[in-house]
Amino acid sequence: MAKYKRVLLKLSGESLMGEKQYGLDEKRLTEYALQIKEIHQLGVQVGIVIGGGNIFRGLSGASKGFDRVKGDQMGMLATVINSLALSSALGSEGVKSRVLTAIRMEPIGEFYSKWKAIDCMEAGEVVIMSAGTGNPFFTTDTGSSLRGIEIEADVMLKGTRVDGIYTADPEKDKTATKFKEITYDEIYNRGLKVMDLTATTMCKENNLPIIVFDMDTVGNLKKVIQGEEIGTLVHN
User: Fold this and answer.
1) What is the CATH number of the domain that holds 185?
2) Which of 110, 159, 214, 233 sits at a 20 to 30 Å CA gap from 225?
3) At what angle do helices 26-40 and 68-92 cross, to 10 degrees?
4) Does some domain include residue 213?
């Protein structure tokens, strides 16, 4: 049984690199597609937002001399490439999906609207919402918060390579301990970098809970959907 009816799944672009140094790893894409298929078969309505860091990240581009607005626009296009790749992988596994874009670019993807996204999910399609918010200076974390709130998701599932939120970076600090659950206020007070402040504030103000979990371990997505307590729950 699924604990949630509709979810917003946030995936990082970097995770799509798999074992590679850049771009897309076909093996990782297939693993993700199969995990998404598992929860889709449980009757869960799935909306997805993917980052673009495996191809281009606007903020890092700005630090290397790119105009910030153009850099962010390049990052938005990177998320569209990732969205098309995941859509293709889902199609290979027999899962219908639709790519919506925050910037008009038919026929690559259809222009996003809340109602189109919800209609498609209710019709049994996985909806991948790309190009961030369509605006510069906003991250894909903020984009996923916005889309999660718009589509009235029960929860945002933030799939990362770490199995939850820790007191410090567990890859750098071996004494870091994991939170089973944490409030938004505690994230602010501790200065934890779960998402950027805009994204975190939007979730807090609109009461959208977040579960941060390790998406790279096959089977974890289904466990989260079925209510197993893996990862870290963020709530008010």
Assistant:
1) 3.40.1160.10
2) 110
3) 70
4) yes
- Does any domain span residue 1? no
pLDDT in tens, 215-229: 999 999 999 999 999
Say what the pTM is: 0.95
Over residues 32-50, the pLDDT tens digits come to 999 999 999 999 999 999 9
Residue owning tokens 């093996």: 27
- For residue 189, give its domain range: 6-235
Residue 169 is predicted with a pLDDT of: 85
CA atoms of 28 and 17, how far apart (whole Å): 7
